[in-house]
C-alpha cells in the first residue's frame, strides 16, 4: 500500500504478488487490482477483481471497479452489466456509492444507443430519476445535456444547463464546466448571440476564465464560421495553457488556415 501511495507501482505489484503466494485473500486481490489499474493493465485488473467476486459475488467495490474499467476502454455493454450488479447490491448505508453508480448506468446507456435506440430513452429515465432523488448536480446536468443533444433536443439541453450555471450554490469550476457545454452546443447550433451572452455572464460574475473555456469559445465560433473570433479565443487559450497539454495550437493553426 505504501509503495502504491508513493506511485512506485512496479514495487507495489511485486510485494502484493509475493503476499498472494504466501496467502490468498480477497483484500490482497483487491490491492493487486488497484495497482494493476494504476499500471493501465486493465485485463489483469479485471481478473483480480473477478477473483474477489468468487469469494463475495456482491462486493460492490469490485463490481464498480470492473464497470469503471469497461467504461474507460469503451466496452459499454459489460460496463452496464457490472454497474447494474453493483447498484443492485448497494445497501442503504452506501447512499453516496449508489448515487455514483446511478450516474454510471445513465452514462453508459447513452453510449449504447449505437446498437439500440431504446437505450437513449432508458438513459433519459435514469437521469430524470437521479435528479428527482439527488437534485440537478452539475456533473449529471452536463451528461444529461449531452444525451439531449444526441436525441436532437439542443433546446432542452440549453434549458437544462442554464439554471445550473447560474446557481451560485454550485461549485464555480463545475459551473464553468457546464458553461463550456452550453457554449459547445450553441456552436453546433450556430447561435453566436447565445455564445456571447454566456461569455459575458461568466465575465460579469467574476469567473476566472480557464484556457479550455477560451478553446471551447474558439471551437464554437469556428463552427459558426466566425474565424476571426475563433482565432482570437484560441490565442487566449494557448497563452493561458502553460502545460501545453491540450492541442490548442493545433486548433489555432486549423482556424488560421
Q: What would you note in describing this structure?
A:
With 257 residues, this protein is mainly α. It is built from 15 helices and no strands. It has helices at 2-5, 9-22, 26-38, 42-55, 60-72, 76-88, 95-111, 118-134, 138-150, 154-166, 172-189, 192-204, 211-223, 227-240, 248-256. Helix 3 (26-38) packs antiparallel against helix 4 and helix 5 (60-72) runs antiparallel to helix 6 (76-88).
Task: Describe what is shown at a glance.
This protein is an all-alpha fold. It is built from 15 helices and no strands.
Along the chain, the helix and strand elements come as HHHHHHHHHHHHHHH
Rounded mean pLDDT score:
90
Low-confidence stretches: none
Q: What structural category do the secondary elements indicate?
A: mainly alpha
Q: Rg, please?
A: 22 Å
Helix content: over 70%
Topology:
Elements: H1 2-5, H2 9-22, H3 26-38, H4 42-55, H5 60-72, H6 76-88, H7 95-111, H8 118-134, H9 138-150, H10 154-166, H11 172-189, H12 192-204, H13 211-223, H14 227-240, H15 248-256
Helix pairs in contact: 2-3, 3-4, 4-5, 5-6, 6-7, 7-8, 7-9, 8-9, 9-10, 9-11, 10-11, 11-12, 11-13, 13-14, 13-15, 14-15
Feature tags:
15 helices, mainly alpha, 257 residues, single chain
